[in-house]
Write a structure and sequence with these properties.
It comes from SAR86 cluster bacterium. The protein has 13 helices and no strands. It has 314 residues and is mostly helical. It is globular, with a radius of gyration of 21 Å. 34% of the residues are buried.
């Protein structure tokens, strides 16, 4: 088992190295060039996008906490917030189990069902992918990229929003959740499978993910704007590319947190719209800010928790 985990970690690390090596070679830049270009913008301009990514992280936590409640896992914020902050950072670690495994293991020590906690992580991923897909479907008729990539298609302009509506109905319908989860929720629950999925709960979860994704896209927009103040970037095309690139990161399972994959898709898509020698750096900068925001979130949660326990002990 340990050999398999080490092998998978090595494979994922290799994938990251290969993808970034290809990206740098394709764009004809070096790692040193990227580091130099990152410093060409005043750090002050990164404050607002950093705040947006921090807000996105907070909303993502809120969505996961509600996912726990959806499966009957009731635990205090003082325990779930530090766990979320830590596990969010572990998603960048090659191996594939740390993100979900840490949540399952820790909450199991508090007496919760491992299966239900795992379901909460699964539903978090499923909703992230589904909401991104829905928004892409609704955005499709308004983008100009389709003319350059697959040509104009009135059928697709109608089909995409219809598919978005159908998927929206699915993710807020309790029937589909019962169909998927009830069969397995009974296992390990001592015969108790009385998990009630309500449309209001599911809609709230979906809206939280949509809000988090919208703020995430704005974080990308203001990061790009810091490097390209003269460019008119505020468009459906920009949002579509960022969400499509983010979705691609979920689909490539051998890239932890979509590292390299997301940035490569961003570069390939934006190179059709933006002609700038720093484009690779610009595509990497939001990821760096997101990582900084996640580290900040972890530090803030730890500081608040330490302060809280200091007051209690006093």
């Amino acid at each position: 088992m340990k050999i398999n985990k080490a092998f998978m970690a090595a494979i994922k690390l290799l994938v990251i190295v290969v993808v970034f090596s290809w990206l740098f070679r394709y764009a004809n830049v070096t790692f040193i060039d990227v580091i130099k270009d990152l410093s060409r913008v005043s750090p002050v301009l990164f404050i607002f996008p950093l705040f947006l990514f921090l807000l996105h992280t907070l909303i993502t936590y809120s969505a996961w906490h509600k996912s726990l409640l959806l499966f009957g896992v009731q635990e205090s914020v003082s325990k779930t917030a530090p766990l979320f902050a830590f596990s969010t950072l572990t998603k960048y670690v090659p191996g594939g189990i740390w993100h979900a495994g840490s949540r399952v293991f820790v909450l199991a020590t508090y007496g919760h069902s491992k299966l239900k906690v795992l379901f909460s992580v699964l539903i978090e991923t499923v909703l992230s992918v589904s909401v991104a897909t829905i928004l892409l479907c609704f955005l499709y008729p308004f983008i100009n990229l389709n003319q350059n990539i697959i040509g104009n298609s009135a059928v697709l302009d109608l089909f995409a929003p219809a598919a978005g509506l159908l998927l929206t109905a699915c993710i807020v319908a309790p029937f589909f959740y019962k169909l998927v989860f009830f069969k397995y929720a009974s296992k390990g629950n001592n015969g108790s499978n009385a998990i009630e999925f309500r449309t209001k709960q599911l809609a709230t979860l979906a809206l939280l993910h949509a809000l988090g994704l919208a703020i995430y896209v704005l974080g990308y927009y203001f990061t790009f704007k810091a490097y390209l103040p003269e460019q008119n970037l505020f468009s459906a095309d920009f949002a579509f590319i960022v969400m499509a690139a983010t979705l691609s990161g979920f689909l490539v399972i051998f890239a932890p947190a979509g590292l390299g994959v997301r940035e490569s898709v961003l570069y390939l898509a934006f190179s059709q719209l933006i002609d700038d020698s720093m484009l690779v750096t610009i595509c990497l900068a939001p990821r760096l800010l997101l990582l900084v925001a996640e580290v900040l979130f972890f530090c803030m949660i730890k500081a608040v928790r330490t302060s809280y326990f200091s007051k209690v002990s006093a």
